[in-house]
Hints:
- Helices cover 43% and strands 16% of the residues.
- The protein is an alpha/beta fold.
- It has two domains: 3-210, no CATH class; 216-387, Rossmann fold.
- The strands form three sheets. Strands 9-8-7-10-11-12 form a six-stranded mixed β-sheet, with helices on both faces.
- Helix 1 (3-38) packs antiparallel against helix 2 and helix 2 (40-46) runs antiparallel to helix 8 (174-195).
- The two termini are 50 Å apart.
- The relative contact order is 0.09.
Amino acid sequence: MTNKTKEAKQAKKLLAYEENLAAAKQQMSNSTSHFMLKQPFYGTLLCNLEILPSLDVDTMATNGTFIKYSPLFVVKKLNTQTTRGVTLHELLHVIMKHPLRRQYRDVKRWNIACDYAINPIVIRAGYALPRDALLDPKYDNLSAEAIYNRLPEDLSGIKIPKWGIVEDAPDGESTEIEAKLDIAISQAAEIAKQRGIVPGDMDGVIAEVKAPLVDWRNMLYSFVKNINDNDYSWRRPNRAYISEDEYFPSLFEEVTGTIVVVADTSGSCVQEFSQFWGEICAMHQETKPDKLIFIQCDYDIQGEPVEFTRDDYITKREIHVQGCGGTSFKAPFELIDEKYSNDVDVVIYLTDLYGDFPDEPAYPVLWVSINKEKAPWGTTVYMHPIAKDN
């Protein structure tokens, strides 16, 4: 393309922008006013965002701080109903923090997964979307990360819309954006509650924002120390009675048996490994378990499990992270059941909680999550809110 052709194309785009700007602004303003009147939760949050006409986008896009739109797209491709629907679509990307959560994931697949996650919410709220909106009931009520993991490798069978783009949050601003968004969501929920109009699909989001944060490190210590408390263990029989064919529990005192520590080494978790391993080392020194078994796993077990005794100074052992593939939680528990089933007291698992879960085991499991997902069983604590302060 020659420079003259580029200049002509740019001039044509600028002319279309100017010709449709006033009408587009009115259309977008009417959409925001509608939400303020009919859906105050969404309307309040829209008022916290910059909604800007832009030459940089061909349709609509958000990075968590603004919604940008093309005046030509709004005027020529959307009507009143679909303007509201696409506006809500963009807002839901913000509410679900999609611009903050892509991490290592492919941009194209991430946008597809995010659309599948939020479009059913738009439809359930009674709003219309363009005909090419991505909807599939098999992805309903799943997070974008879970959908991303379930998407087919070949995306050629999915007709991908060009509107409603998720852009990454500005570099270095994710923490501040998330903090402000949590405050805005909490305030919007209170306003909507006063009006008696809180969207049902937002109950979980609001509950997460309002939930008190617990320092995962304190929870880690409490979880392990509870095992140290004087207790009877049926798994450790009292040897004094075995010869008499009677099986009694033994009393074990301030000694933790075997702790299995699993690190999810998929791409989204490796940046948290250093902090996690530091706390595991400190916990080992304080609680002195008989044995600590360390396993790395993304989709499959990576390398050989590393075993430490209670007298090992494990901080001297250099750990090299292996993996960075997809995620499944089944392999570590299969390995535990195969090799350590008669020995394990507790499993501690660092992960983003996006993967396939096995059935719940008999022993306690503490999931240390790097986001606000919740495991279907076991105890879940969250690393990110605390890690940000370090």
